[in-house]
C-alpha cells in the first residue's frame, strides 16, 4: 500500500537498497530486490519526483538523498500541498455554488433533459440511482486523472448493483494504473466482478453511460469530485456512445501486457505524439497521461533518436511517413 507521503513499499525498498549499496546500478538493485529492471526504473522516477534521489555519477544515474534531508523536505511539501488543496477545494466550492446560483436564476426549463449536481454525495447518489435502473450496459471512461482512494471507493456500491442486476459493464482507465500495484489490485477486482476493463495512455473526458440513454460527466479538481452534469438528451448520449466505441477499439485489455515497441509505435508513443500535435507541453502531456515529466522526456528522446528528427514538427511528419500514426492523428 501507499503511505501518506506517497511512497509505496517497493519504492521504499529501492531507496533503502541505494542507501545500503552506494553506486549500485539498476541491474544490481533489481537483482537484490528480485524485481525486473523496468519496475526498478519506474520506482527511481517516483523517488526522483519526491526528491529522495537526485542525478548522480552512479551506475543507476541516481544517488540517494540523506534520509534526514529528503524526508524533512517531503513533509514540508506535503504540508504545502495540503494547504493548496484546501484552497482549491474552497475555490471549487465557491465556483460550483456560483454556477448553480446563476443556473437557478436562469431557470431549468431552458435545458430539458439536463441535470446539474453539486458535491460528491449528490453525484454518487445520482449515479447509484441510474445503476439501479440499468437494464443492458454500463460504459465508463475515466477518471482522467488519479483520484484519492476514498473517491474511487465510492464506486464500490455501484459495482455491486451492476453485478446484481447482471448488466454488462465496460470500463476504460488510464494506462498509468499499471504502474501502481495497489491501484492494479483494485482495478483487477473490478474487472473480475463487473466486466471488461481496458487502458489508454490518456483520456479525453470522464463519463459514465447508462444504457446509452443517460450520460454523467463528473467534474473533478484537486483529486476530488465537485459536481457533475447528467444528460438524457438522445443526440448528446449518442455522441458520447460513439466516442466510447472509438476509444474502446484503441484501448488495450487490462489482461494483456503493454506491448514493447518493435518497429512500430506503442500506444503510449502514439498518444504523446498526438498531445504534442495539439500544442501540449511536456509538462501538460505528463499530467494528461498521469506519468512523470521524466517519462515524457524519455519518450521524446527515444522517438527523436528512432526517427532521426531535428524538431517536433519533423518528428510528426516522419512518424506519418513511416506509418506509425495517421495524418488525422496530428489534427
TrEMBL record:
Question: What is this protein's record name?
Answer: Helix-turn-helix domain-containing protein
- In this chain the HTH luxR-type domain maps to 258-323
What keywords is this UniProt entry annotated with?
A: Coiled coil
Keyword Coiled coil found: yes
**InterPro entries in UniProt:** Sig_transdc_resp-reg_C-effctor, TrmB-like, Tscrpt_reg_LuxR_C, WH-like_DNA-bd_sf
Pfam families in the record, alphabetically?
Answer: GerE
Question: Would I find Coiled coil among this entry's keywords?
Answer: yes
Q: Which residues form a coiled coil?
A: 75-102
Amino acid at each position: 500500500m501507499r503511505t501518506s507521503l506517497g511512497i509505496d513499499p517497493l519504492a521504499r525498498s529501492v531507496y533503502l537498497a541505494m542507501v545500503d549499496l552506494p553506486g549500485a546500478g539498476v541491474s544490481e538493485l533489481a537483482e537484490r530486490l528480485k524485481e525486473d529492471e523496468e519496475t526498478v526504473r519506474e520506482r527511481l522516477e517516483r523517488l526522483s519526483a519526491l526528491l529522495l534521489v537526485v542525478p548522480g555519477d552512479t551506475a543507476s544515474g541516481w544517488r540517494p538523498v540523506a534520509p534526514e534531508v529528503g524526508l524533512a523536505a517531503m513533509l514540508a511539501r506535503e504540508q504545502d500541498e495540503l494547504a493548496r488543496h484546501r484552497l482549491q477545494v474552497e475555490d471549487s466550492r465557491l465556483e460550483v455554488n456560483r454556477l448553480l446560483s446563476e443556473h437557478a436564476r436562469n431557470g431549468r426549463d431552458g435545458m430539458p433533459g439536463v441535470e446539474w449536481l453539486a458535491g460528491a454525495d449528490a453525484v454518487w447518489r445520482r449515479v447509484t440511482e441510474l445503476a439501479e435502473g440499468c437494464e443492458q450496459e454500463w460504459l465508463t471512461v475515466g477518471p482522467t486523472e488519479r483520484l484519492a482512494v476514498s473517491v474511487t471507493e465510492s464506486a464500490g456500491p455501484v459495482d455491486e448493483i451492476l453485478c446484481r442486476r447482471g448488466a454488462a459493464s465496460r470500463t476504460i482507465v488510464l494506462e498509468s494504473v499499471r504502474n501502481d500495484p495497489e491501484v492494479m489490485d483494485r482495478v483487477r477486482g473490478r474487472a473480475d466482478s463487473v466486466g471488461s476493463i481496458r487502458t489508454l495512455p490518456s483520456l479525453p473526458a470522464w463519463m459514465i453511460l447508462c444504457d446509452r440513454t443517460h450520460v454523467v460527466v463528473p467534474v473533478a479538481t484537486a483529486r476530488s469530485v465537485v459536481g457533475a452534469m447528467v444528460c438524457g438528451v438522445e443526440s448528446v448520449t449518442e455522441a458520447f456512445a460513439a466516442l466510447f466505441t472509438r476509444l474502446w477499439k484503441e484501448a488495450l485489455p487490462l489482461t494483456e501486457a503493454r506491448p514493447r515497441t518493435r518497429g512500430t509505435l506503442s500506444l503510449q508513443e502514439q498518444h504523446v505524439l498526438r498531445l504534442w500535435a495539439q500544442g501540449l507541453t511536456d509538462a501538460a502531456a505528463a499530467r494528461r497521461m498521469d506519468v512523470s515529466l521524466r517519462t515524457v522526456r524519455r519518450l521524446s528522446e527515444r522517438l527523436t533518436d528512432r526517427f532521426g528528427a531535428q524538431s517536433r514538427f519533423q518528428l510528426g511528419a516522419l512518424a506519418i511517413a513511416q506509418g506509425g500514426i495517421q495524418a488525422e492523428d496530428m489534427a
